[in-house]
């Protein structure tokens, strides 16, 4: 991997036109994410988490400041956006097909990533035959199949039931190794469990009010981590900052 930062934001502000006038969504964001980091962003609704992700993805442009991304980004949205006329495998192959990857290679790649997310036996199924959690796993496989160096995830588990969410958390923690991940979530516990760093954003205009490194043993399973003193302490600290309205500061 490159030794350069995967993502760098310098002095980023973003303003958009709302119904009652101009609204400042982000205020003076400075952020560097290194290759291989798993960074989660939490904060109250409307604090600019999704706006931050969309800026990094290139869907919108900053009003002020610079956004630099080293390499391509794959984006996993809140809800699966699968093509209903394609099979599960066809959905995962789609990005590879657009890149003119030979048929045999893209089929092998799709099969590998479907096996990785536990959908190997559903390769020939139609998307509507899958449950919501399975559709989301298919979307994750489709993004990972193109092997982007950076994956941006916008509350990908938000609409799932608790059990499916826990299963996907474990799968994501496993398959995200050797990739850079920016993960937007409303769940403080989820952020701490999955991440190497957690960012807390203030209410609008969004600022980073906490940048907390998370040190956990990658070999430990999530059930064990949930009750570990380090995770409980980090969760309490992050939750405390989410609930406050404080000026910019670092951990």
UniProtKB/TrEMBL annotation:
GO molecular-function terms, A-Z: ATP binding
ABC transporter domain location: 7-228
Domain of life: Bacteria
Keyword annotations: ATP-binding, Nucleotide-binding, Transport
Protein name: ABC transporter ATP-binding protein
InterPro entries: AAA+_ATPase, ABC_transporter-like_ATP-bd, ABC_transporter_ATP-bind, P-loop_NTPase
Species of origin: Cryptosporangium japonicum
């Amino acid at each position: 991997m490159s030794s350069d930062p995967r993502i760098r934001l310098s002095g980023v502000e973003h303003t958009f036109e709302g119904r009652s006038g101009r609204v400042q969504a982000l205020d003076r964001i400075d952020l560097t994410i290194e290759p291989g980091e798993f960074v989660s962003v939490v904060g109250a609704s409307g604090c600019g988490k999704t706006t931050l992700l969309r800026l990094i993805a290139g869907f919108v442009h900053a009003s002020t400041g610079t956004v630099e991304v080293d390499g391509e980004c794959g984006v996993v949205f809140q809800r699966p956006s699968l093509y209903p006329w394609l099979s599960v495998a066809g959905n995962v192959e789609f990005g590879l097909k657009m890149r003119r990857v030979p048929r045999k290679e893209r089929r092998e790649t799709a099969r590998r990533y479907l096996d990785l997310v536990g959908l190997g036996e559903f390769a020939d199924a139609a998307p509507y035959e899958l449950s919501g959690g399975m559709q989301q796993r298919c979307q994750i496989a489709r993004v990972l199949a193109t092997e982007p160096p950076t994956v941006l995830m916008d509350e990908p588990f938000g609409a799932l039931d608790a059990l499916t969410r826990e299963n996907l958390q474990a799968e994501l923690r496993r398959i995200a190794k050797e990739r850079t991940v920016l993960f937007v979530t409303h769940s403080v516990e989820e952020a701490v469990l999955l991440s190497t760093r957690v960012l807390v954003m203030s209410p609008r205009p969004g600022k980073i009010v906490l940048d907390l490194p998370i040190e956990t043993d990658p070999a430990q399973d999530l059930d064990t981590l949930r009750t570990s003193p380090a995770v409980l302490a980090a969760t309490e600290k992050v939750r405390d900052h989410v609930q406050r309205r404080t000026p910019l500061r670092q951990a």
